[in-house]
Amino acid sequence: MTTMPDQKLPPLAFLGAGSMGGAIAKGVAGSGLGTQITVTNRSAARAEGIRVPGIVSVALEQAPTGNQDAAASADVVVVGVKPAMVPDLLREIAPHLRPGTIVVSIAAGVTIATFEGILGAGIPVVRSMPNTPALVGRAVTGLAAGTTATPADLAVVREVFETVGTVIEVPESEIDALSTISGSGPAYVFLLIEKLTDAAVGKGFDRDAARLMAEQTFIGAAELLRASGEDPVELRRQVTSPKGTTERAIAVLEAARLDAVFADATDAALARARELAQGA
Question: Which of 39, 89, 102, 171 has the fewest CB within 10 Å, making it most exposed?
Fold first, then answer.
């Protein structure tokens, strides 16, 4: 079940389409690659928020069999409910899936083994870890294939997630580590912007001006990195003139051992991811 770059994707169902699932569904719809896209949410209000051209949005409070119906009509089913709700949802839809339907998880901490154990043979599983920039088409998504997912299955799932950003294929053993970098990474960036804004306020700027400076500096630097193709080390060197002000500031940051801070932070996130995977 693979597609060529100029072909439409097979029918898709997004079950529990919260902000992440909804963003991906909208990305597929906006790409023009979606032939049939169905999303489900519990409430009519949530369903209304994702009712856009190209998407059939179902409220389970109005259509109690909506998950079963959507799963039965799809070739790719994306499971986006909260992790604790995943087993019950899988048991609900399992009898309605056609053999060969690809089931994709965007539920953090839920293993491929959990999916395969409930869905049984004949249903290939792919575990994904997208991040919140999917909302603006700039996601980084990690994909890990289950034991029966073929390269063709993975290619279809890759194409779905490429409508909202970049895709990296990894073994499942690396998904939790990936989540500590790209999954949690936006929060690290937002924290840095927050602290740089605070530093500007401390130097006398009003908060609106401080926020504008900090935000646009990060956005501009990221765009320069993307457009130039240069290594970030080289771009930093170009800004850091010998004996200049930036060199003095960088010396302070280096003395704070940011490398160790980020290593410790991502280690802590990884430990928590492993706890979650064990149900802690």
Answer: 171
